[in-house]
Amino acid sequence: MASYKAPLRDLRFVYYELFDAEATWAELPGYEDATQDLVLAVVEELGKICGEVLEPLNSVGDEEGCQLRDGAVTTPTGFIEAYRLLQEGGWTGLVGRPEYGGQGLPPTVGAMATEMLCATNLAFAMYLGLTEGASHALDLHASEEIKQKLIPKLIDGTWAGTMCLTEPQCGTDLGLVRTLAVPSGDDTFSVNGSKIFISAGDHDLTENIVHLVLARLPEAPPGIKGISLLAIPKLREVDGELVPNGVGCSSIEHKMGIKGSSTCVINFDDSIGWLVGEPHKGMRAMFTFMNSARLHVGVQGLALAEAASQKAVAFARERLQGRSLTGVKYPQLEADPILVHPDVRKMLLTMRAFTEGARALTAWASLAIDVHDRHPDPAKCSEADDLASLLTPVVKAFQTDLGFDATNLALQVCGGYGYTREYGVEQLVRDARITQIYEGTNGIQALDLVGRKLPAHMGRYLRRFFHPVQQFLEAEAEVPEMQEFVGPAAKAFERLQRATAWIAQEGMKNPDQAGAAATDYLHLFGYTAFAYLWARMAKISLAKREGSDKDFYDAKLATARFFMQRLLPKSGALFAIIMAGSDAVMAFPDDAF
Ligand SMILES: Cc1cc2nc3c(=O)[nH]c(=O)nc-3n(C[C@H](O)[C@H](O)[C@H](O)COP(=O)(O)OP(=O)(O)OC[C@H]3O[C@@H](n4cnc5c(N)ncnc54)[C@H](O)[C@@H]3O)c2cc1C
């Protein structure tokens, strides 16, 4: 099968034509030098490495998986060499702060990199992503001393990081955490407990691993308000030597996908760690970096959809079956390529409309996170934070739901060959499935959107989305060539507004109404956000469809049309489902299940 091609043209369109990333970064101290030329050169270079080095290892990781022997995890053949290559090339520090040895590029460049890394090898990308996440959390919350001790090693890739939240009795409900951290009398804590499902919990890519662990201090308040965050190295430094720190891996999971990523049970036995942030404020510390962590999982959905879409298109061009319904299209061939069949085209266009829409939504949310992190004007900062907070659950859940659907569609396009291992599409389906579960299940993202983000500050977050959408739709309402885009988008937007008002009103009276509507509402939100972005992309394409890039803009317009006519009508069904209320869901007796 054709190998991965980094979507460089579309990245340029989204980040520099739809949004103006360079102008955004020019206002953010420290990011002024992130010019378009520099960023696109970086992205192109990484895209090559992803296609040439990581993609060939994707099936190796899937076939071999990780192994646990004598308490130590080994990664699949080739992972160590690929890791060294990325480490030596400075890729582990792409978005790390220069004062800790990083390259200081904006996190949004990290999101572009994440897309290519995950599209070619999600399991491998997990090791890098977790380390970056741990480094970011330490940067936001740790004391200067701990930052100096840990972050440079994470950035230069000598050490790796993890996030240890889950325990056997608690996944979604982290208030049930039992791991205990007892003060040792100096500035350290002695930690005991067991964490499960820890991605990259143990491996052979780095000399050490820093675990960021949710634990409870003695006499902590019960529930979520009594959780603290600790940094616990697998090996701790004593007199310049790295010595064991009571951190052990007792088993690894045998799972459906991302088999090259180790998923470990990690035990802490009198392990020495440092508190990160204030006592009992661990969840707050976690939440502040969750926007970027969840966005990264949303990018995984986009990435796998892109990879699947590329494979499906290549297959559909080559596979000859039957003839076009309207007459032979390729008479020189024994049969027409399946690309001519309406059902196959529909699947390919669905993947395309989703992938390009998701790339645009990712860019919008990610740039808002950059602005929130760095803008000198507090008002702009807060405005961007509102938007990022609102869009984050949508990016995470909508993009991973549709990402999974896209991989599944790609498998369907490839027929029986898709179901075999040879083509790599069935692996993408299996790999994609976890993205809907970890980093907060998609059901929980929907509850976050409906229960926290909609009512926040009397609807202030929501206004950051509604205002630009409304303004754009009004401004384009009378433009004749925009009617085919603005009309359907306005209809979806109206449904979203009505559903929002209904949930606000009915959810107050009966929270089950909001709970039963949540996932459908999140999808309605996602479709509306895509409609707005597709309408904007269509406007740009209408204005630019000349010259050497004409084909690119024509394809954009055709995809925008497909989205408006063939996908967006789902907003009508979602609206009807939401308005049906929770009765049929809640009336069913528990014992009858
Ligand atoms: C491969 C893999 C890698 C992982 N990596 C990590 C990692 O690196 N670090 C880490 O800490 N964890 C990790 N996890 C754990 C993951 O984050 C959890 O599995 C996830 O948060 C869900 O928790 P759970 O499995 O306990 O499901 P549960 O919380 O038991 O949920 C089961 C179902 O009930 C629903 N549900 C639960 N509570 C509610 C509620 N209040 N309202 C509505 N619905 C609800 C959920 O949406 C879900 O559908 C990983 C898991 C896997 C499988």
In whole angstroms, how far apart are the ends?
A: 45 Å
Element order, helices and strands?
Answer: HHHEEHHHEEEEEEEEEHHHHHHHHHHHH
Report helical residue fraction: 55-70%
Structural class: alpha+beta
| Anisotropy-based shape | globular
Overall mean confidence score, pLDDT: 96
Rounded to an integer in angstroms, the radius of gyration calculated over CA atoms is 24 Å
Beta-strand percentage range? 5-15%
Largest sheet entry: 7 strands, mixed
Strand runs, count:
11
* Ligands, ions, cofactors: flavin-adenine dinucleotide
Total helices: the number is 18
Flag low-confidence runs.
none
What would you say this structure looks like, in words?
The chain is an alpha+beta fold and about 600 residues long. Among the domains are: about 20-65 and about 75-150, Acyl-CoA dehydrogenase/oxidase, N-terminal domain (Butyryl-Coa Dehydrogenase, subunit A, domain 1); about 160-285, Beta Barrel (Butyryl-CoA Dehydrogenase, subunit A, domain 2), CATH 2.40.110.20; about 455-593. Helix content is about 60%, strand content about 10%. It has helices at about 10-20, 20-25, 35-65, 80-90, 105-140, 145-155, 280-320, 340-375, 380-415, 415-420, 425-435, 440-455, 460-475, 485-510, 510-545, 550-565, 570-580, 585; strands at about 65-70, 70-75, 160-165, 180-185, 190-200, 210-215, 225-235, 235-240, 240-245, 245-250, 265-275. The longest helix is centred in the middle third of the chain and has 37 residues, at about 280-320. The radius of gyration is 24 Å and the shape is globular. The chain binds flavin-adenine dinucleotide. Flavin-adenine dinucleotide binds near residues 165, 172, 199 and 443.
